[in-house]
Amino acid sequence: MGRGFHAPSLSPAEIPAAARGARPGVTMEPSQEAEVLDPGPSPGGLSSAEALAALGAFGRRLLWLLPVYLAGRSGLSVGFVLLGLAVYLGWKGARRGKERSLLAAKLLLGDERAAVRATAAGAGLGRELPAWVNFPDVEKAEWLNKILAQAWPFFGQYMEKLLVENIAPSIRASNTHLQTFTFTKIDMGEKPLKIMGVKVHTGANKQQILLDLNVSYAGDVQIDVEVKKFFCKAGVKGMQLHGMLRVILEPLIGDVPIVGALTMFFIRRPTLSINWTGMTNLLDIPGLSSMSDTMIMDSIASFLVLPNRLLVPLVPDLHEAAQLRSPLPRGVVRVHLLAARDLQSKDKYVKGLIEGKSDPYAIVRVGTQVFTSRVINENLNPTWNETYEFVVHEVPGQELEVELFDKDPDQDDFLGSGLEQGVGMWLGGQEGSSAGWETGFFCLFLGRILDPLPHLSPLHQVLQRNKGISSKPEPPSAAILVVYLDRAQELPLAKSGKEPNPIVQLSIQDVTRESKAVYNTISPVWDDAFRFFLQDPANEEVDIQVKDDSRQAGLGSVTVRLARLLSADELTLDQWFQLENSGPSSRIYMKLVMRVLYLDAPEVCHTAQPCAPGQLDLSETTAYVGSSVDLPSRPTKSSPDAQFGMEVHVIRIHLLEAESLIAKDNFMGGMIKGKSDPYAKVRLGGQRFRSRVIKEDLNPRWNEIYEVIVNEIPGQEVEFELYDKDVDKDDFLGRCKVPLKRVLSSRFIDEWIPLEDVKSGRLHLKLECLPPTPSAAELEQVLMVNSLVQTARSEELSSTLLSVFVDRASDLPLRKGSKPPSPYVSLSVRDISYKSKVSSQTADPVWDEAFSFLIKRPHVESLELQVKDDGNVLGSLSVPLSQLLETEGLALDHWFQLSRSGPSSQILMRVQLGVLVSQHSGVEALSTPAAGEDEESLPRGSESELYIAEDGEVPPRLSDSPLGQLRLTVWYHTDERKLIAVVHACRNLRSSSKEIPDPYVSLILLPDKSRATKRKTSVRKRTLNPEFNERLEWELPLEDVQHRKLEAYIKNSVSFMSREKEPIGKVHLDLSQMDLTQGAPQWYDLKDDKSSS
């Protein structure tokens, strides 16, 4: 080792493992040690690298002689050389001094303890420091106290403004008896709040700064209040508050002010003492004093003691605000309260001459979570054997407090207390602890913290394990549910017509939580979180009741089965929920998060006898060992509700006519009375429609049809409002409402309904509920009926309801830069489109959303779907609805391959059709073969019977008529007072020439052959089997129609130069001999035009 480096000769055994390059705790083989210690010289003696290093060193030494050579070459004296050398040495010394100073500063800032010890060792004081030198974790903050002292008067001004302008009006509005409540004096005193110490936790989370402030306040505050109505004065003069306040600076951002928000809370309940004045002096009576302080402390704990937090955002639009205000728990600790021994005897009789025993019970507390054990009568060695579960929110910091009392009729006697610090250490697996007092001891088993997992795979294992655990008073929990209650919209008004004070009650089995009240609003924002333990998530449900706080009247409710969470992504539902027994648009926004409580090893030591941690029975630990990170398998089917596709209905609204409306158009100051130009507004389920205007008519007839998709949400109404159209402002003509519940229960309503808020007028309506039927057997009849009842001024009626459940997608393409997208789904049918929610930053999004579309012609329409990310298309899909007609149940439920996307990009969804069958259309169903028509000629649900066959195939010949046949429907529409003829098709027409004709159908209503009674279809080019599907109408009363005949001529459209003008054939119908209410399509044989009718 001689070449340029000298070291003492050591054997491999004398060199520490760390110096040899080995990892601690890893034994290296001798061959490996030899490789590390002695790479060995090159065969030629000096290696090439060593030779280059030697040449480099020689060259640097030659450079030192260069200034001397240049000085001699220039004829300079030796003094110049010495001057240059002195300048260089001075520069070198100054540079080395700066480097040593910088290194010392870095060492002092990095590890003060090591720096002080190194300095002491260099001064000859040795490595051990004096006893008076220490390095506390909690540091003083006198500079902060000086700032608080300087700012305290201004804080007092702010508190005065807050109490007078905000708090006092809220108190006066909360109760009628407090309408004269005022603050008569507000003085925060001269003694400010003090920070006795600050501890900074440097954890692994680099996105936050954690501070623990030891807060102490013993101030001369004076606040006086008065309720003048009752001559009541009260107040506070002096207060003490001591506690540990945790401040979290989170998130840290790369922009001013660097910190996104401040989160503050007390980890444990602070101690409080208040000096009352005025009538509240009564609260200083022994017994009442502690009770009043406890009540106030409970109020403080309700918003400033874990799990409650005070969030102060420092930047606008903080997206993490809800998560910071109510973060998910860090875990759940299961505490087994076993037994106590040798407790004090507190029950004594005959003035202490006879010593009794005690009636002990325990209070176990973590933060605001408190459990009280049962009382064991007359026992100094009680055995409880009870289990409690606590949510752990902060690590480190939370503590488990245990207090024992002797139950007495008056005041319970204190038996002792214990404190288990560092709940966070349980994460490392501390399995037991014993707490002792002056007399007696107590055995407590602390199970390891149960990790909350965001997936379903270990749930079955947890449920099986819990069955083997004997737990009192409650069975062990398998999961924890956190409900983030955000806000509600459009709640109904109170019965008095005033805005309510909404509160929310959430219940799971016999556990109920209640939110705060939000005063005088129908769109409250609670921004609260609630936590529930779940024993069997698959069979439990959360019931949400929205109530008016002042009267406890119900404003709406919703029940969510927790089984929905089990199939949701990350066991989370984040969406709006429609309220039942509420307004039509009343809904509530919540986020429900479930976490499975999983432990790698089972909990033991459930016996009543105290046991040490080393004596725990671990004989069954291997039975439950498993992985806590198994991912759920990919689903093959979507997971909608069981009633998906059937839970929605279509309401068909037929606006017919009105009578006896008020005349609003008056002229010359009312001397000449005119009429009105009425129109109607219709509203249901958030959709609005407007009819056409009927000019100068007090008995207008609209005859318009509207269709709306609705859910069975109580409280909805079909609303109608009539107006008179004017140049400036339209005049009100009346309104009426029909409860949707009535329509859903009766299925059909045909009534004249009187108009409200006006002197006269009534409205004729037809309302029908069309439930979707998952069968294609009646589709052709529905299409035929729709073509008959279709009004001239309404859109084409819907024949089916399309329900789409978008579950999830997988392997979506990434953004540029390999960043995951934030995808959403856009769905459209014709000109109707919907968007799903955005799933943030994931290539495997889960949407879990349902959509509904009204479909008019399912044979020719299709569902268009696009997966987008900020406007960029990640994939698309087109589903022709004709595919659904060929499936059983009219549904498709599987993974669909996305086009214009990645090779493995797919979307899981369920697409389902439901046929809308009207039972009250006015068209009688065709159940038996019509006269003159055999069974073979009846419709059989084939598309070619009603619509043009796309492949141009000729239907089979069903008649021996030499001229062919005409398919025709003749029906009288009583609501429109019209005769309707639907020309469907012709088949097997005869051609009188070598060329194929261009047929059309001409209809004449006899005996009148004028232009007013003639109708004709469009021309079909070069076909012997034309398809028309056209509707022709005559506006005539039924009495007149029954005395007429209808002739239908099939003609060939030819040029005016052609001689061929003879009809191909004709059909003659005597309307007086026909049942015009049936409206069934029939095939009629064509006859020669020269034959007699």
UniProtKB/TrEMBL annotation:
Residues 314-438, 461-581, 632-753, 783-908, 962-1084 form the C2 domain. Residues 18-42 are annotated as: Disordered. Pfam families: C2 (PF00168), SMP_LBD (PF17047). The keyword Lipid metabolism does not apply. InterPro entries: C2_dom, C2_domain_sf, C2C_KIAA1228, Ext_Synaptotagmin_C2A, Ext_Synaptotagmin_C2B, Extended_Synaptotagmin, SMP_LBD, Synaptotagmin_SMP. GO terms for biological process: endoplasmic reticulum-plasma membrane tethering; lipid transport. It comes from the Eukaryota. One of its GO terms (molecular function) is phosphatidylcholine binding. It is a peripheral membrane protein; Multi-pass membrane protein. Residues 137-315 form the SMP-LTD domain. Its main location: membrane. CDD domains: C2A_C2C_Synaptotagmin_like (cd08391), C2B_Synaptotagmin-like (cd04050), C2C_KIAA1228 (cd04030), SMP_ESyt1 (cd21679). It is found in: Cell membrane; Endoplasmic reticulum membrane. PROSITE patterns: C2, SMP. Keywords: Acetylation, Calcium, Cell membrane, Endoplasmic reticulum, Lipid transport, Lipid-binding, Membrane, Metal-binding, Phosphoprotein, Repeat, Transmembrane, Transmembrane helix, Transport. GO terms for cellular component: endoplasmic reticulum membrane; plasma membrane. Binds calcium (via the C2 domains) and translocates to sites of contact between the endoplasmic reticulum and the cell membrane in response to increased cytosolic calcium levels. Helps tether the endoplasmic reticulum to the cell membrane and promotes the formation of appositions between the endoplasmic reticulum and the cell membrane. Acts as an inhibitor of ADGRD1 G-protein-coupled receptor activity in absence of cytosolic calcium. Binds glycerophospholipids in a barrel-like domain and may play a role in cellular lipid transport. Belongs to the extended synaptotagmin family. Interacts with ESYT2 and ESYT3. Interacts with ADGRD1; inhibiting the G-protein-coupled receptor activity of ADGRD1. Interaction with ADGRD1 is abolished when cytosolic calcium increases, relieving ADGRD1 G-protein-coupled receptor activity. Interacts (phosphorylated form) with SLC2A4. PANTHER family: EXTENDED SYNAPTOTAGMIN-1, EXTENDED SYNAPTOTAGMIN-LIKE PROTEIN 2, ISOFORM C. This is Extended synaptotagmin-1. The lineage of its organism: Eukaryota, Metazoa, Chordata, Craniata, Vertebrata.
